[in-house]
Design brief:
Elements: H1 9-23, H2 33-47, H3 54-73, H4 84-97, H5 106-119, E1 126-127, H6 129-139, H7 144-154, E2 162-163, H8 164-176, H9 183-193, H10 205-219
Helix pairs in contact: 1-4, 1-9, 2-3, 3-5, 5-8, 6-7, 7-9, 8-9
Length: 225
């Protein structure tokens, strides 16, 4: 990888994938508060966290803290929207300043921890292969064989578990690691090198799959079409 994160095409592809696929849910080319509301709505509904429950409150607090931090630090033109350029600049600066996970701000550790709880469906403290596949294949529409291969690489053929420590290493490494064998870049390869990253709003097969998933999983809760 290039010395400067923004000079590296793989790192930029990861950031584009993160921006367009994880956060820009209304497909308008920017990330705003409405997108964060949809993200958290999907989390609490998918995890079946009841309104007012501790995890429901934690997820919504995480949403507010993360959005306020992004609005404060990334929204340089102060229009209450984050463009792709602003997103890339923000995370490039975070990656350049990163030392170790003990220095992570609370808003980011909460983001990591809430997502870990979402993926750890049975609550046993680690994400097994079934849970990993359920998220990346079942929800992100990545081919099951690709997901299973990534899981084996990350867990060293299941010699170690994806507990909260390894999960943090994986997700943080997605943004900050320059080691292509790191868990974060293994996940990055799974997401952007294997399936590609659609960065234009045009009707493609991948775009259609994503829209169907958003419609049926996040919103059509009574399954009436």
């Amino acid at each position: 990888m290039a010395k400067n994160f923004k000079d590296d095409s793989f790192w930029l592809a990861k950031m584009r994938h993160q921006f367009y696929t994880w956060f820009d849910f209304n497909e308008n080319g920017v990330v705003d508060k409405d997108d964060f509301d949809i993200v958290v709505q999907g989390l609490v509904q998918g995890a079946k966290w009841a309104e007012g429950s501790p995890m429901w409150k934690r997820a919504n607090t995480m949403k507010s803290n993360l959005w306020e931090q992004l609005k404060s630090s990334a929204d340089t033109d102060k229009n209450d929207q984050i463009s792709l350029t602003e997103w890339v600049d923000f995370w490039a600066e975070c990656a350049a300043k990163y030392v170790n996970d003990t220095d992570l701000p609370f808003w980011y550790t909460e983001f990591l921890d809430v997502y870990f709880c979402f993926m750890d469906k049975n609550g046993d403290g680690w994400i097994d292969c079934t849970e990993f596949v359920a998220y990346f294949h079942g929800l992100r529409n990545i081919h099951q064989d690709i997901v299973e291969t990534a899981y084996r690489r990350i867990t060293l053929n299941e010699q170690r578990h994806i507990d909260i420590k390894l999960f943090r290493e994986m997700v943080i490494g997605y943004t900050v690691s320059k080691d292509m064998k790191s868990p974060g870049n293994i996940m990055g390869e799974m997401l952007v090198k294997e399936i590609g990253c659609e960065t234009e709003f045009k009707r493609t097969e991948f775009w259609d799959i994503k829209q169907r998933h958003h419609f049926f999983y996040w919103f059509d809760q009574d399954r009436n079409g």
